[in-house]
């Protein structure tokens, strides 16, 4: 956890600094926006900005957005000026803390930002084997590939490996390769020099240099463009990187952990992933089984989440009833741990009485998780499937593929990532197909075409 305090309230923030450091955070100070931006560009980075409420927070937010720096802001002030606090929240701050700070409040904010609640909870033998292997290789510098379905806890396992490595006291830096556009990902990884491209207003240190001495997590690496993969391969092999627009190589000392929810061997055969890069990354493979294949973990995790969200919402901790436990263990959990966590969160809020019963184990739509599908619905689905099958006869594969892609994208309200997941293809492949269709004059549902994207981003 890295905390950057911005403003001239260092004297007032002595307590906050001490509390943060007691909670394992490293603390850096900056007098103003300019100095804060220099710190962030310079490779120290931050997981949280604690900013004087009387600084121009909106200006700081705009500067961060302009340089694609994503870090939450918490405003603080020595008075309980409600108007200033509200203005700070409207400007982009996530929270307001009055000074002098309450130790429990500071600790809670740091824990929320660091997401310390992402504990590695397991009981099933299938998961225990994965953890045992992770413990065996944690102390080495070997590159690690963590694979598994979405929601199984790949980043949690990556942090587990880091905290048990010789680099545990150094940074753990994560970058989602699927969430950053192609033309920005190279700069995010390797940094850039001032003037290297439009918008490069100053030198920016990339994630490789920011993680020096520690661990760099390349999340969903299968979505990285092949051209950038060659530069990544050089960085891993030679332990040097080239900033965009730079004139000399920069040495780095990091351990690489990569994750993927796709089969990279298939991606190699498809030509979307370099085989030599896969060999470099896949020194050790930690394959996390889906939740449905480790049933003993379901109840262990359910109990963990029940306590977590009871504490978070200030409600009594209720045990999970025997019937509810049977419902949980019999469900397939296609969304894995993430889906289970959301389900238990709902159940904590909906439960009445002394236990969490089956009536509180609900889907997002409010239906009971164990509610059987009605016969009319099944019959309707069967009839619809037959109609679709008849409609395919006489059409080319390319035509069917095109219609499927466009209709799926429309169903997802333009959200490319969700459409790619539903279709079972990479987002890169999806983008290439959409560019091809657009060149042919076909209308393409634009990104962000509806509330679905905003809801998904908050999930």
TrEMBL record:
Residues 2-114 form the Response regulatory domain. Residues 120-349 form the Sigma-54 factor interaction domain. The keyword Phosphoprotein applies. It comes from the Bacteria. GO terms for biological process: phosphorelay signal transduction system; regulation of DNA-templated transcription. Keywords: Activator, ATP-binding, DNA-binding, Nucleotide-binding, Phosphoprotein, Transcription, Transcription regulation, Two-component regulatory system. InterPro entries: AAA+_ATPase (IPR003593), AAA_lid_NorR (IPR058031), CheY-like_superfamily (IPR011006), Homeodomain-like_sf (IPR009057), HTH_Fis (IPR002197), P-loop_NTPase (IPR027417), Sig_transdc_resp-reg_receiver (IPR001789), Sigma_54_int (IPR002078). The keyword Metal-binding does not apply. The modification 4-aspartylphosphate is found at residue 52. One of its GO terms (molecular function) is ATP binding. PANTHER family: TRANSCRIPTIONAL REGULATORY PROTEIN (PTHR32071), TRANSCRIPTIONAL REGULATORY PROTEIN FLGR (PTHR32071:SF21). This is Two component, sigma54 specific, transcriptional regulator, Fis family. It comes from Bradyrhizobium lablabi.
